[in-house]
């Protein structure tokens, strides 16, 4: 009896340990030993707004949508386009009609085929005034034919320039020629959505019990403001290549608490609390990363009707720009590997070469001398000091920068600089209405091409808070849309912006994070921060 | 007593209506709106969204429709920020969470705070009293936004005993730290209040009379001192209970409980009008209810009170 019991136990133990060995395995290409638990747990600071591709409007939500759904194209680790549901595309001679060929093995999680019709439905849904998506404007960025008239309800949604010719052929007609159009198709708001599920469940279709999705993962659990779980989707056309079985979000509203819990081993990834990057990098050099991102921190100088008279003088604006020592701000205040900015478009932008604008190529001492000359030429000095107010939204980080800049202006130029902070929505309203002198701004690219930045200085841009207007810039922007090589136009626009200084570019952002050593496959070089869980895997340490 | 209840319920309705109107007006007076963002929406897109949520109508109409929605269907509307959820869903998910850790904190605070205050008063100027007084001062000056991260540091990072946050369907491990962080200052306040109140009662004339007629000390305290000493404590317990069960922004955001306190504060920052109104009305209703309960308890504690 005793022997019998022992034998059973032994057999069970052998069986259990061999199953462990089998489950662990190795990475198919790199050959690294994988851990048993392919579960990736990461922190987001706030609850996502939605997981509906056409409704979601925040970065955390967009990352979930990229896992749950798949659009025409995906991005690789460097941000280049790779096939998603679309295998390839063709375009007509003047680049106004794009025809995408879709794979025929893509499936929804309920087993239905993903068709061109699902994309047509989703795009029309995005443009439909009834959907009332905050991301409708992306249709304008994509330059789809009739998008504006459809959004305003002047013509029916059926007139939108998108049409499924067959189940695997999607034809997109643009309002005008645009060479970088395919880049916009990696954006979540262009992902397909399942008409039958939306019809059946209305707004509740995105709940775990109803959702139908076509990405590498399916949503299995959501507890608002606490956790969200997605698990691999066996129906995904490339499921065989997925290694990470499960992805878990823990929502932790306090970044310091998130770090403590990360250090206690609760998470695989979290952010680096503001102001702690340098210390954390010394302490945990192998787990702390700082990756360049497509975002620019800048100050708007109000040239509009409510703006101060002084800022209508180009020399004053130039002086304010020259007197800011970007190196001090980046190295002594931010300390997380950010890049000093002299152009609005970051260096990290694909296909963009940063032009050598005048303010960038001289030393800070030379800039300071020049700034003082410019301001006195404009008639300001000790007897007649310029007074300027900096407006920013309440935050320790913005405050530190505002203090530094106001001191630089004060010491170098004798400017009487004051500061005012406002709560976020109040700040946005004040800035939007043009009731400010100098106001901070942060701008992140919607796709990886310089126009996503430079369109902001277009006279008609809704984001042009400086109220800058320059005919040459507008023309250059219009021409660049159709050009095969828009770089010369972008160079010229940056030169004009640096010279006219309607805004002062201060630094280009980086995104700082903690990532456990065991997690591999993170696309650190993807400047848009577009990561896909199916490319991640955990190795045994 | 029935008379009192009927009267108070009758007053509660206009009270809640006034809360609704004032909150509604204040909310709309705040600059910006639910759809103000870093990348401003084009006027067309904004118009579509406002039409969808009925924000394009004049404010009195919005208020009317909102009130009708609540009265007829108990519908508090959709959240403007979390687009795939309604206010009813947010409250249904967040309220049980805050109620759970709130009730536990209430029990702990009353269970420890009241007896500690009583003992301190009965043994005034002894070591026990000094301990109780020191504890209540220390605990009330240590705010929970300092205490909560400290607890996580000790119990999660150093000792590895308890999870540093999350709710996990209310498992006890996830409850311990939030309850400690939340209940400490309330325990301290109850200790201080109970002690002061009992000391005052013990010095009153009728206690002197009771002692003079030769009643044993235990009887003096149990029969004559305790009830009147509890009056100020009960007054404090009503609003304290409501404050605890409707959640704390600090506790919710530091311990990521998914509770209602976080949604409440954030809804104001996000200008998520419907969420803010919904929770305001819920809190308002609870305050009215518990004030009534406190008033009823008064009658039992103090025979001089007549309704």
Characterize this entry briefly.
The complex is a heterodimer of chains A (541) and B (307). Chain A is α+β, with helices and mostly antiparallel strands and 541 residues long. Chain A has helices at 2-24, 59-68, 116-127, 137-142, 147-151, 195-201, 255-263, 277-283, 314-322, 326-334, 364-377, 396-413, 424-432, 451-454, 471-482, 487-500, and strands at residues 39-44, 73-75, 81-83, 86-91, 97-102, 162-166, 169-173, 217-223, 227-232, 246-251, 269-271, 288-301, 339-340, 387-393, 416-422, 438-444, 503-515, 519-520, 537-538.
Task: Spell out the key features of this protein.
heterodimer; A: seven-stranded mixed β-sheet; four-stranded mixed β-sheet; 16 helices; 20% strand; globular; disordered N terminus; B: 307 residues; mainly alpha; MetI-like fold; flat
**Overall body shape of chain B:** flat
Helix run count of chain B: 12
- Average pLDDT for all residues of chain A: 92
The largest interface is: A-B, 52 and 54 residues
Largest sheet of chain B: none
> CATH-wise, what's the superfamily of the domain at 96-272 in chain B?
MetI-like
What is the strand content of chain A? Answer: 15-25%
What would you note in describing this structure?
The complex is a heterodimer of chains A (about 550) and B (about 300). Chain A is globular and about 75 Å long. Chain A is an alpha+beta fold and about 550 residues long. Chain A is built from 16 helices and 19 strands. In chain A, strands 11, 12, 13, 14, 15, 16 and 17 form a seven-stranded mixed beta sheet that branches. In chain A, strands 1-10-9-8 form a four-stranded mixed beta sheet, covered by helices on one side. In chain A, strands 4-5-7-6 form a four-stranded antiparallel beta sheet, covered by helices on one side. By secondary structure, chain B is mostly helical. Chain B has a domain at about 95-270: MetI-like fold, CATH 1.10.3720. Helices cover about 75% and strands about 0% of the residues of chain B. The longest helix of chain B has about 35 residues, at about 85-120.
């Amino acid at each position: 009896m005793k022997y019998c019991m022992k034998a059973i136990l032994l057999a069970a133990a052998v069986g259990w340990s061999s199953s462990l060995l089998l489950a662990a395995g190795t990475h198919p290409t790199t050959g690294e030993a994988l851990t048993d638990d392919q579960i990736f747990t990461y922190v987001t600071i706030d609850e996502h707004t939605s997981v509906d591709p056409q409704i979601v409007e925040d970065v955390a939500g967009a990352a979930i949508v990229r896992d749950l759904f798949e659009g025409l194209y995906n991005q690789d680790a460097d941000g280049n386009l790779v096939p998603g549901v679309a295998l390839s595309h063709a375009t007509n001679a003047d680049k106004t009609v794009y025809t995408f060929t879709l794979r025929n093995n893509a499936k929804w999680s309920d087993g239905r085929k993903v068709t061109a019709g699902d994309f047509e439905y989703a795009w029309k849904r995005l443009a439909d005034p009834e959907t009332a998506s905050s991301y409708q404007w992306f249709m304008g960025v994509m330059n789809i034919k009739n998008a504006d008239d459809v959004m305003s309800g002047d013509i029916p949604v059926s007139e939108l320039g998108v049409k499924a010719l067959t189940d695997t052929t999607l034809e997109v007609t643009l309002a005008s020629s645009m060479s970088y159009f395919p880049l916009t198709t990696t954006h979540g708001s262009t992902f397909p959505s399942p008409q039958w599920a939306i019809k059946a469940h209305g707004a509740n279709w995105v709940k775990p019990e109803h959702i139908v999705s076509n990405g590498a993962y399916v949503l299995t659990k959501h507890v608002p403001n606490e956790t969200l779980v997605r698990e691999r989707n066996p129906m995904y056309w490339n499921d065989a290549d997925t290694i990470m079985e499960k992805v878990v979000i823990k929502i932790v509203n306090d970044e310091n608490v998130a770090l403590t819990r990360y250090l206690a081993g609760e998470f695989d990834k979290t952010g680096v609390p503001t102001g702690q990057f340098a210390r954390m990098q010394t302490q945990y050099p192998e787990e702390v990363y700082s990756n360049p991102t497509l975002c620019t921190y800048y100050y708007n100088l109000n040239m509009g009707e409510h703006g101060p008279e002084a800022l209508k003088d180009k020399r004053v604006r130039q002086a304010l720009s020259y007197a800011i020592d970007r190196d001090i701000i980046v190295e002594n205040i931010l300390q997380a590997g950010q890049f000093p900015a002299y152009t609005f478009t970051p260096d990290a932008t694909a296909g963009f070469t940063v032009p050598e604008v005048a303010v960038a190529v001289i030393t800070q001492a030379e800039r300071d001398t020049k700034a003082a000359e410019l301001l006195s030429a404009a008639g300001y000095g000790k007897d007649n000091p310029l007074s300027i107010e900096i407006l920013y939204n309440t935050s320790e980080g913005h405050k530190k920068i505002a203090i530094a800049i106001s001191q630089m202006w004060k010491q170098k130029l004798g400017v009487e600089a004051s500061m005012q902070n406002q709560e976020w929505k109040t700040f946005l309203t004040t800035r939007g209405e043009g009731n400010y002198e100098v106001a901070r701004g942060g701008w992140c690219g919607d796709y990886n091409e310089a126009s996503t930045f430079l369109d902001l200085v277009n006279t008609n841009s809704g984001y042009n808070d400086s109220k800058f207007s320059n005919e040459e810039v507008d023309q250059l922007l219009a021409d660049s849309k159709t050009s095969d090589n828009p770089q010369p136009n972008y160079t010229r626009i940056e030169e004009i912006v640096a010279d006219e200084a309607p805004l002062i570019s201060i630094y280009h952002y980086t995104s700082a994070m903690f990532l456990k050593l065991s997690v591999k496959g993170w696309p650190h070089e993807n400047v848009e921060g577009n990561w896909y869980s199916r490319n991640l895997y955990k190795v045994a340490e | 007593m029935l008379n009192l209840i009927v009267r108070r319920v009758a007053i509660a309705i206009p009270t809640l209506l006034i809360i609704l109107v004032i909150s509604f007006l204040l909310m709309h007076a705040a600059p910006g709106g639910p759809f103000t963002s870093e990348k401003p929406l084009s006027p067309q897109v904004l118009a579509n969204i406002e039409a969808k949520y009925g924000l394009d109508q004049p404010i009195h109409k919005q208020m009317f429709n909102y009130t009708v929605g609540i009265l007829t269907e108990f519908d508090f509307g959709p959240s403007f920020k979390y687009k795939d959820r309604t206010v009813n869903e947010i409250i249904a998910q967040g309220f049980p969470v805050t109620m759970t850790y709130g009730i536990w904190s209430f029990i702990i605070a009353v269970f420890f705070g009241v007896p500690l205050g009583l003992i301190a008063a009965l043994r005034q100027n002894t070591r026990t009293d000094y301990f109780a007084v020191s504890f209540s001062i220390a605990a009330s000056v240590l705010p929970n936004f300092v205490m909560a991260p400290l607890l996580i540091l000790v119990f999660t990072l150093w000792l590895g005993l308890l999870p540093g946050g999350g709710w996990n369907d209310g498992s006890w491990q996830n409850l311990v730290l939030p309850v400690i962080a939340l209940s400490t200052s309330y325990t301290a306040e109850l200790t201080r209040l109970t002690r002061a109140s009992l000391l005052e009662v013990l010095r009153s004339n009728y206690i002197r009379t009771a002692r003079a007629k030769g009643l044993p000390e235990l009887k003096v305290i149990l029969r004559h001192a305790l009830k009147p000493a509890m009056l100020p404590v009960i007054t404090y317990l009503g609003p304290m209970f409501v404050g605890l069960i409707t959640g704390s922004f600090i506790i919710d955001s530091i311990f990521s409980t998914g509770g209602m306190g976080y949604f409440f504060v954030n809804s104001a920052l996000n200008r998520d009008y419907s969420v803010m109104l919904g929770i305001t009305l819920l809190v308002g209703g609870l305050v009215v209810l518990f004030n009534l309960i406190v008033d009823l308890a008064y009658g039992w504690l103090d025979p001089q009170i007549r309704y």
